[in-house]
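Running this now, will post back.
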Amino acid sequence: ALGGAIVAVVAAAYDDDVHTNATRRAIAYDVKKRKVLWQRTLWRGDSPNGVFASPPWAVPLRDSDGGGGTDDDTTALVYYDSVRRVFTRLDAATGKPTGEAALDAASARAEATLANVTFPMFVSSDAAARAASADAMQAVDKFDTEQSMRRDVYDALAAAAAKLKADADADAVDARLMDKTLKEYERNGVALDDERRAQFKAIKDRLSELSSDFQKALNEDTTSVVLTRAQLAGVPDGVVSAFKRADDDAAAADAAPPSDDDRLVVTMKYTDALPVLQYCTVPATRKAVLRAFDTRCTPNVARLQEMIALRHRAAQLLGFATHGEFVLAERMAKAPAAVRTFLDELHARLQPAFDAELGAFNALKAELEGTDEPVCNWDRLFYTREHKKRVAGVDEDALRPYFETRAVMDGVLALYAHLFALRFERVAPPAADSAHRRRLFWHDDVELLAVHDAAGGGALLGHCFLDLHPRPGKYSHAAKFSLIGAVRRADGTRRPAACALVCNFTKPTPQKPSLLLHQEVITLLHEFGHALHHIVSDARHARFTGTRVARDFVELPSQMLEFFGYEHTVLSKFGLAKHHESGEPLGADVVDKLRNARTVVAGTHYTRQLFFAQYDQRLHNLDSATDLATAGADGNGAPLVGGAVASTVDIVDEWRRRWKALTKIGDLDDTHAVSHFGHLAGGYDAQYYGYLWSEVFAADIYALFESDPLNGAMGRKYRDVILARGGEVEPMALLRELLGREPNQTAFLKHIGVDGDTGAAG
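Update: finished.
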């Protein structure tokens, strides 16, 4: 039932065309009259350090490097020529039962290849390479749309599914793979008639372009403001010393300390802008920085405005009332109504805490500024920090010396090694001037970790690249990027995984180490949790490996690990919190204050998260009767593709109106913060609620560790049940198995310091 004649056809086709030829041939692009070649990654255990035989990124390769290339001057995507030939071969076997397992394996190899052309968009220091990678991403998406509409392949899969369903001994995971594979074809329009299929394809292609352009604008943004040291009063010296001087482009730390008249450049990178908003005692400066921060990437407004209309039309072509209904059908929540109920109930529980905190902020503003004007958005972070400092006795900036980045990273690795029976090794880089280094490491800041199974004979589980510091053109948030997914092969062997952890922590200088805020320590625990989820996966099929789970479940494993950052026993045992000069550990009383500080501002924090989630749901659950125009046009006045019509919901006005109604906090009238809300363009559309949804489960799971955070037996169980199985089993079933009961909200409500009845989560 899982095989048939096409299994051999597909496997042979992929092995011949992709796994061999594409290994020897580069993916070639002509960028500004020169080739930018990205070699295909091929995992080989006998390569140097057990890493890559053909390392993937670093610098553009020349033909003399063995990259191959093409002779014409047009942009070429050699890899996709190979893949198209595979599906052409399938034409001859249409109607025979195909093997979704073979397609899954082929997709796994394909995804490993794709990472090599799409990942440089986020990390390369070469602007031309980033542009080429962005173009490649659009080509990838367009091809994915084409292949997902192959009716002949779908029919063959459906025939195999019928046989599988009739097999009483069929494996449950294989059956789940078949079901998910068929649904993906159906959700990509395979069953539409020719006219609607063409419309759907046009919409998908356009959405790919818009999403890529949205992210590219964020990555390439250079918005900044120039301020004097006097205008930056209150901002810690350590932050100011990293700002460039406007007159000579030298870092302040590279010369004498800045005087009050020195002009300093504050970029809109988080490492620059957020400390100013948190610490600057000059209201006009905070206002100027927020205005610059929230007026970045103006064209993204029109892009997202068009995207919500196109998504709505695509959902309707597939028979759904809204895009939210389409998305949530395959999520834990199942329907927009369940999300609305969840968010509304949480809002009601948070309201008293939020009101009390906002009242405290207003009182602080009256005290410090001598005004009865209420707190505005440019004041929010400043008075949040001040309130935490006064009520919880915590000044995070004063604690930076206890969180040196390298020591924190080592501590995180030691913690996760202990909990999950792992062993981490830093892979020594090749010589600085070697071609191997240039290909394997895309920047001098990058490190490489090898991850081994300490409980399984030391088997190599995978690798993780660490790219922790900001630079121009780099992805500006923190995220895990999948490069190669782990798969348990039919013969019992396991293909190791690879991923990259991309963050933006302050870079060390010769004069000063990189020192983190405690919240950045939590970020590192969180993001490396995603890396672990990816690397320790033991799924049999690529479709279910690692973080390929429901979007409203994917944050859970990482959110659960955040709790360990508030445990003194953890911080002290593994050296996560010790003074970078004296080695003095952070005291237990201070860690208790950090834990209490979460509750002190929980109302403000979670109400802001509610705003994002509710706003997202509003944009992606349009009412066709009231929210659509009679005609539509994109940002340039051209008609929308695929029969879509424009939304009459102005996304900037909706943002302002909802923010004011929910928070009562005033904002600038000439800004458009939605232009940098990358989640809505980058895969979290109609799913931002998932951060709150999954945190409920994360808190419930952490209760298992609360009495003994160093419980290695429970850590191993968590690894085996939650991390290793990926998407092979429905999330709720995994939770029940780990908890031994139905999940509930008790631990979450305790964590955020609000009262509420115990009830089933979700």
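The radius of gyration is 26 Å. More later if anyone needs it.
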